[in-house]
Specification:
four-stranded mixed beta sheet; Alpha-Beta Plaits; alpha+beta; 4 helices
């Protein structure tokens, strides 16, 4: 598959934003939502995600579609956390990258007990330590 990017013609030239940059912005947005743990492809959290990346951004023309896989901390409303993730990702991508966001699909793959979250934070996100 060809590398995806978002190309924006400007008066002084062209700005090209790589897909990886958009994915990084979306990942940081997810991390900023209380009660959510992003899934990553490596370590303990990667097992929960089924080996898939936690954030995937696809760009078509001037619109980005985002597909996220997350874990929600037990005790938080899954529905509210997922909605907060959708809103935060949309806002951050539009504000920081200037790209229009089409859809933000959130797949809740795991509910993580608070004790496990504390253990993962002490050992590092990937569970290695």
């Amino acid at each position: 598959m060809a590398e995806q990017h978002w190309r924006v013609p400007q008066p002084l030239g062209t700005v090209v934003v790589r897909q990886e940059v958009l994915s990084a912005i979306a990942s940081r947005a997810v991390e900023g939502v209380e009660g959510v743990r992003p899934l990553r492809s490596g370590g303990i959290l990667g097992v929960f995600s089924g080996g898939e990346e936690g954030v995937q951004v696809s760009v078509r023309e001037a619109t980005a579609d985002v597909d996220l896989r997350i874990a929600v901390v037990l005790g938080y409303s899954v529905h509210r956390v997922a909605q907060a993730v959708q809103q935060r990702v949309r806002e951050d991508l539009e504000k920081l990258a200037g790209i229009r966001v089409g859809k933000v699909d959130v797949h809740v793959r795991q509910v993580v007990p608070p004790e496990e979250v504390l253990m993962l934070e002490e050992r590092g996100d990937d569970g290695e330590g």
